[in-house]
């Protein structure tokens, strides 16, 4: 019992600290986007949507998973599959938002003449709303109507899918295969956009007979680091859940919980990654702190 309590303490501590931090950081990102003039276009609309997804995901784990880790509430556990469906819906919307962001950058650099047609503010809002609607409908169908509930599992201290043959197939094709494909395509589009962006900036600078500034070089490198890190980490978390977690022994519950929930932890960390790699968003708060004393 002492060991079990010790393990439970660390699991609840990890959940509370990571997701509370995730809520706060992503709220900071969301407020910065609203204040930033450079984020008033389609890119800002999609990034704002991503921050909202991260906040919702963190709040569900903070307000549902964390209390259930502290003490089992039979009524809440019995209805936890509704929260599980919400988690999967937000997860699908988040992956779709990543794809829209990468497609936005790709179109801006490779198809500038069609950019305003595809990603006008009104069209971007339409894509966002369609993404929400389609993700919710699909998740409600697979996780509620088909009855492959994604609910809280007491032994693992996190949400788990029912272990039936049908549910395993649903999870494999609708989650692992589909989302991993979306993530790889998203990463590819981001890398192509980074390559073209670097090429165009060098072309403009060379035409003017100047050298690429260190600020510009650092900005381009930060973009590459952000896209690569986010893309690879999301793919890695997918493989961790489906490949690594099943082979971890039940005798290592903390490690099993961490690996199984790594994909959700990425939503908490994403706000920090966006803020760290986006000088424009950080400058919003610097301006506020500078103006405030006067």
TrEMBL record:
Residues 16-278 form the 7TM GPCR serpentine receptor class x (Srx) domain. Keywords: Membrane, Transmembrane, Transmembrane helix. Gene3D superfamilies: Rhodopsin 7-helix transmembrane proteins. The chain crosses the membrane at residues 12-33, 54-77, 130-152, 172-193, 228-248, 254-277. InterPro entries: 7TM_GPCR_serpentine_rcpt_Srx (IPR019430). Pfam families: 7TM_GPCR_Srx. The keyword Ribonucleoprotein does not apply. This is 7TM GPCR serpentine receptor class x (Srx) domain-containing protein. It comes from Caenorhabditis remanei. The lineage of its organism: Eukaryota, Metazoa, Ecdysozoa, Nematoda, Chromadorea.
């Amino acid at each position: 019992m002492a060991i079990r309590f010790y393990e439970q303490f660390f699991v609840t501590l990890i959940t509370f600290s990571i997701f509370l931090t995730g809520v706060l950081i992503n709220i900071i990102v969301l407020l910065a986007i609203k204040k930033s003039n450079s984020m008033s276009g389609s890119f800002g609309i999609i990034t704002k949507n991503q921050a909202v997804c991260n906040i919702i995901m963190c709040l569900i784990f903070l307000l549902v998973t964390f209390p259930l880790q502290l003490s089992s509430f039979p009524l809440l556990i019995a209805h936890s599959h509704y929260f599980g469906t919400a988690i999967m819906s937000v997860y699908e919307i988040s992956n779709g938002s990543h794809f829209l962001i990468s497609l936005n950058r790709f179109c801006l650099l490779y198809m500038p003449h069609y950019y305003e047609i595809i990603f006008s503010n009104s069209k971007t809002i339409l894509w966002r709303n369609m993404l929400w609607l389609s993700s919710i409908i699909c998740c409600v169908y697979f996780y509620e109507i088909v009855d492959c509930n994604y609910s809280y599992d007491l032994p693992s201290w996190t949400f788990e899918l029912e272990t039936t043959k049908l549910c395993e197939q649903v999870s494999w094709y609708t989650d692992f295969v589909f989302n991993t494909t979306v993530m790889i395509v998203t990463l590819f589009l981001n890398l192509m956009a980074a390559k073209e962006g670097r090429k165009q900036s060098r072309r403009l600078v060379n035409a003017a007979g100047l050298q690429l500034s260190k600020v510009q070089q650092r900005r381009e490198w930060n973009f590459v680091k952000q896209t690569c890190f986010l893309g690879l980490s999301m793919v890695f978390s997918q493989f961790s859940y489906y490949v690594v977690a099943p082979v971890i022994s039940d005798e290592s519950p903390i490690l099993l919980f961490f690996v199984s929930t790594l994909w959700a932890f990425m939503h908490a960390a994403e706000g920090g990654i966006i803020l760290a790699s986006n000088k424009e968003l950080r400058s919003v708060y610097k301006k506020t702190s500078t103006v405030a004393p006067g």
